Amino acid sequence: MSLGLPVAATVNCADNTGAKNLYIISVKGIKGRLNRLPSACVGDMVMATVKKGKPELRKKVMPAVIVRQRKPWRRKDGVFMYFEGSCFFFLSLLFRVDFERINIMLASTSLVAS
């Protein structure tokens, strides 16, 4: 899968937690290589902070899952998938879903991969 969201990317919110923009700090499961930025794709868990949104969500490091990305990726059946923009879902600190409603369309890959 094409890694479309590197560290320091700003991503929009896809749920009703009150966050507007997310700033990616790190990607879970990436060990790294010299001078290469860790990147995330659909279904990856990232650690992030809220840059715009409710004051109680800001200035805290929280886990999130990427559910849409603008960079195209190829599925096993040969179809190239991409979205209009990149989006995420916030998770609670216990890695449970922290929202009640989804505001966007999703790819089925994002739900299976996480």
Automatic annotation (TrEMBL):
Q: Does the keyword Repressor apply?
A: no
What name does this protein carry?
60S ribosomal protein L23
Any one Pfam family here would be: Ribosomal_L14
Q: Name one GO cellular component term.
A: cytosolic large ribosomal subunit
Supply the alphabetized keyword list.
Answer: Membrane, Ribonucleoprotein, Ribosomal protein, Transmembrane, Transmembrane helix
Q: At the top level of its lineage, which domain of life is listed?
A: Eukaryota
- The answer on whether this UniProt entry bears the keyword Ribonucleoprotein reads yes
A GO BP entry is: translation
Family statement drawn from the similarity comment of this UniProt entry: Belongs to the universal ribosomal protein uL14 family.
Gene Ontology terms, MF aspect: large ribosomal subunit rRNA binding; structural constituent of ribosome
Q: Which SMART domains does the record cross-reference, listed alphabetically? A: Ribosomal_L14
Where do transmembrane segments lie in this chain? 79-97
Q: Which organism encodes this protein?
A: Linum tenue
